[in-house]
Amino acid sequence: MTVLRLTAAGLSQHYKALSALAVTCAMAGCATAPAPVAVKPPPAPAVAVAPKPPEPMEIAPAAPAVVVPAFVSQAGTARDYRRDAATHLYERLRERVFKGKMPPMLQAVGVLQVDINHQGAVTDVRWMRAPKHVPAVMAEIERTVRAAAPYPAPVRMGQVTYTDTWLWHKTGRFQLDTLSEGQL
């Protein structure tokens, strides 16, 4: 039987060796493995592909232009609308409106019917009493009525036919019976 005698100096060396071994083992456990190196796959060989022909496009028909009226009329009858239309004409043609009472002798007096659609556009004009002795005045009144469009849109009625009497002075100025200041 072998007896192992350890002295203090031998024991100290033995502890030092064990400590070094423990530190080495601990460090080996903490070490990280090296990062893997990414390897790119080789590029695929280029294959010539014919371009796909464009598919035919369907073109929708253009929507009709919508005219939005600048003014609307809340009139419920053609008689009420007549005032809105006369006011519109007076505003558009201020310089041509005869101011004051009309003289007793006028160049022409005509009664005109005007058809207005839901957007305020003039669709037709008809003479109920035409001043046929002055065709130039008739043509000028019709041109003036059409040029003043769009009229206030008759929103409550959808469309309207109104009638007004044109009082025409020889200077080319006029009044409408609806807003007339009277006659001398």
Throw out a few tags for this protein.
184 residues; alpha+beta; Fusion Protein Consisting Of Minor Coat Protein, Glycine Rich Linker, Tola, And A His Tag, Chain: A, Domain 2; four-stranded antiparallel beta sheet; two-stranded parallel sheet; 3 helices; 6 strands; 28% helix; 18% strand; elongated
The CATH topology of the domain at 72-178:
Fusion Protein Consisting Of Minor Coat Protein, Glycine Rich Linker, Tola, And A His Tag, Chain: A, Domain 2
Going by helix content, strand content and strand pairing, the class is alpha+beta
For the largest sheet, list the strands in their spatial order: 3-2-5-6
Q: End-to-end span in angstroms?
A: 159 Å
Q: Give the low-pLDDT segments.
A: none
CATH class of the domain at 72-178: Alpha Beta
| Oligomerization | single chain
Q: Helix coverage percent of residues? A: 25-40%
Strand content: 15-25%
CATH architecture of the domain at 72-178: 2-Layer Sandwich
Total DSSP helices? 3
**Bulk shape:** elongated
The arrangement of helices and strands along the chain is HEHEEHEEE
Radius of gyration: 50 Å
Total beta strand runs: 6
**What is the overall pLDDT average?**
80
